[in-house]
């Protein structure tokens, strides 16, 4: 496992996927230590750091004991593999703990990701699912993954669904930034097995705060495009499943963000319907009059079209179609 000993704010911005945060310095102490270092007052900086960490050492020791018992390898890292990771690493080693330290820290990790991304998708044949909002593309990807297919869930990597409602219902989590998005792309790719056929969902080049790398966009364009269709009733059901576990205030805030695109009276009408729990009417109107006209895939060439009313059956049909196509 990876243990990120940077400050909470650094960890929140981006980290190695799956890493836990055990900060050597909190945000305020890090700021003070950094200011002292920049001013050339190195001894004072070290002294302040030692004073700041001392009260937390018993709890940190307890946490690392748990990690070492639970995992074969515990790897500590900070920003550049310097004072923060080295100090806690040296202390734990002196106490007999079997821990490791990442040379170069998170900066070195990011350098590796940057080198991997351009060539990551070169040998991949992407099969991209396109279709209007609510046709169940993500659910189909989940079913494909259950059946052993390679899947790249771009929305999960971005922690955003790519619209004004993109972050609604995602447990209050912020959309991932570019660094975290790219890390999750690499992590996903590490799970793919031969043959390197990867199913994904058609997205714009930007999803939330993340932008698709050019190499990924090119690989998707060169792949196979499938069209997913579904009845309006099915689509309404999918939207309700994805979004209606959110609180009312979150839904209304998302509707408010539609005002640059729709007239105010219409948006206010939607908001009132949400307050009255007339969800089906709002969803149907938004799908037919707003989303469908905006997402026009007619210019794309599709190798096949699948009617989706059951994600598991559609996934089976796609796999069977791919088998026949490649035989």
Automatic annotation (TrEMBL):
NCBIfam families: PRK11784.1-2, PRK11784.1-4, tRNA_sel_U_synt
Domain Rhodanese: 3-118
Organism (species): Trichococcus ilyis
Keyword Transmembrane appears in the UniProt entry: no
SMART domains listed in its UniProt record: RHOD
Keyword line: Selenium
Protein name as it appears in the record: tRNA 2-selenouridine synthase
GO biological process, one term: tRNA wobble uridine modification
Signal peptide: none
Coiled coil: none
GO molecular function, one term: tRNA 2-selenouridine synthase activity
Source organism superkingdom: Bacteria
InterPro entries: AAA_SelU, P-loop_NTPase, Rhodanese-like_dom, Rhodanese-like_dom_sf, SelU
């Amino acid at each position: 496992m990876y243990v990120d000993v940077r400050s909470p704010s650094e960890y929140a911005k981006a980290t190695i996927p799956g890493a836990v945060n055990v900060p050597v310095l909190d945000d305020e102490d890090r700021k003070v230590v950094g200011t002292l270092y920049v001013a050339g007052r190195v001894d004072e900086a070290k002294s302040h750091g030692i004073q700041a960490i001392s009260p937390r050492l018993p709890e940190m020791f307890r946490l690392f004991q748990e990690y070492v018992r639970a995992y074969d390898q515990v790897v500590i890292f900070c920003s550049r593999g310097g004072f923060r990771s080295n100090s806690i690493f040296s202390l734990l080693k002196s106490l007999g703990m079997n821990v490791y330290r990442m040379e170069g820290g998170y900066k070195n990790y990011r350098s590796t990701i940057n080198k991997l991304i351009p060539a990551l998708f070169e040998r991949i044949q992407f099969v991209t699912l396109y279709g209007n909002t609510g046709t169940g593309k993500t659910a189909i990807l989940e079913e494909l993954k259950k059946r052993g297919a390679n899947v790249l869930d771009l929305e999960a990597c971005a922690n955003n669904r790519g619209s004004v409602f993109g972050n609604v219902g995602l447990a209050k989590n912020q959309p991932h930034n570019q660094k975290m998005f790219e890390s999750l792309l690499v992590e996903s790719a590490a799970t793919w097995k031969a043959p390197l056929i990867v199913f994904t969902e058609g997205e714009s080049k930007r999803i939330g705060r993340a932008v698709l790398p050019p190499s990924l966009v090119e690989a998707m364009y060169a792949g196979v495009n499938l069209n997913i269709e579904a009845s309006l009733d099915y689509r309404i059901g999918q939207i309700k499943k994805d979004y209606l576990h959110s609180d009312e205030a979150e839904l209304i805030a998302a509707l408010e963000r539609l005002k640059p695109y729709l007239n105010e009276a219409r948006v206010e009408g939607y908001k009132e319907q949400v307050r009255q729990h007339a969800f089906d009417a709002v969803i149907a109107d938004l799908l037919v009059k707003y989303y469908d006209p905006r997402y026009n895939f007619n210019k794309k060439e599709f190798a096949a079209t699948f009617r989706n009313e059951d994600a598991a059956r559609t996934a089976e049909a796609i796999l069977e179609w791919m088998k026949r196509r490649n035989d």
